[in-house]
Specification:
Length: 142
């Protein structure tokens, strides 16, 4: 049956899709702070010059975006990301500003099912976290 010239595509899909990237190096380009569907804030970090080290699926793009739910809790995905970034920069997490990461070349790793605390009933909660393994220095030209 012909649907009158309809061409299926994947533009404007709705839902929470995450990157298949598991470990990669990329240059921090920018970030936005969209609201998620539950009213919370997400930090969407855009990276370019991506070099894939490990991925759940083929990833041919040179850009990537990772999304981290904003929270002021140290044990949250945002807290873990910030703590690892501060450590890579050699500063205290309390002094870290997200703009310190702009134009930095980050080595990032994703960990799924990471224990992030307990819910109101005392049941362990797990989630996906991103950590900065290191901040790479650009190569010096000879």
């Amino acid at each position: 049956m012909d649907a009158g010239g309809f061409r299926p595509n994947w533009k404007n899909l709705q839902g929470d899709f995450r990157t298949p990237l598991k470990e990669f190096v990329g240059k921090f380009d920018s970030y936005t702070t969209p609201q998620n569907r539950w009213g919370g804030i997400q930090i969407a970090i855009k990276l370019n010059q991506v070099q894939v080290l490990q991925s759940d699926a083929f990833y041919p793009q040179a850009t990537a975006e990772i999304s981290i739910k904003y929270s002021e809790r140290e044990s949250s995905a945002w807290g873990i990301f910030g703590t690892s970034a501060a450590k890579a920069l050699g500063i205290e997490v309390e002094t870290l500003e997200v703009d310190y990461l702009k134009n930095q070349i980050l080595h990032l790793i994703r960990t799924d099912n990471y224990p992030i605390g307990k819910d109101k009933e005392g049941k362990e909660m797990k989630g996906t976290v991103w950590e900065v393994v290191e901040i790479l220095k650009p190569r010096q030209k000879a």
